[in-house]
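Sharing a chain and its predicted structure for anyone who wants a worked example. Both blocks are below, sequence first, tokens second.
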Amino acid sequence: MELLKDKKAVIFDLDNTLLDSHNAWNEVDEEFFRRRGLPCEKDYCRSVSTMSFKEAADYTINRFSLNENPDDIIEEWMGLIEEQYAKHIGLFDGVKKFLQSIKKSGKKIALATAASPRLYVPALKNNGIYDLFDAFACTEETARGKGFPDVYLLAAERVNESPSDCVVFEDIIPGVKAARAGGMTVCAFLNPYTQPEWSELERLSDFAFHDYNEL
């Protein structure tokens, strides 16, 4: 891939960029609100997509006026989703082969995700790609969520490369904007779940694609 030619590291978002996890999280959201007799509003999942779990729990409590503890909400989400990440959620077609080609080229690979290690470690291991990564960073470790450059900069720091030497793969507009704000080249993965935003993702990114097998 020409865009990676002069770069030293590639940083990947996890959910809906590497892992096809959209439907699993929709089911979690629906079950969470069903237990409380509330509707799962259409914009909710998109609203929390850039947040850490703590930010998402606080946001959920405030938005729906819940008299609940954020830590309890996080544990409930974890209980609903952990088995899916450990055993069932798979990669988009062509991801493993693409990661292997990057590794073979000598470039470093890092993860920058809003997911907890409790989720991303078993998911990457179950899909046979954990050992391809040189470093991991998640928004639990940064002051701000995915709408800001923090987690991408932390990932770059952990592979000992400058932001300008890194390419970020993302699937959502706030992530693309944040990585660019951090001084990185950005590739947008146009997955089936973000189709209404494809034109904007193409405009904001340095490169956009639909299929890993074509890279």
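Comments welcome. The beta strands are 9-12, 108-113, 135-138, 166-170, 185-189, 207-209.
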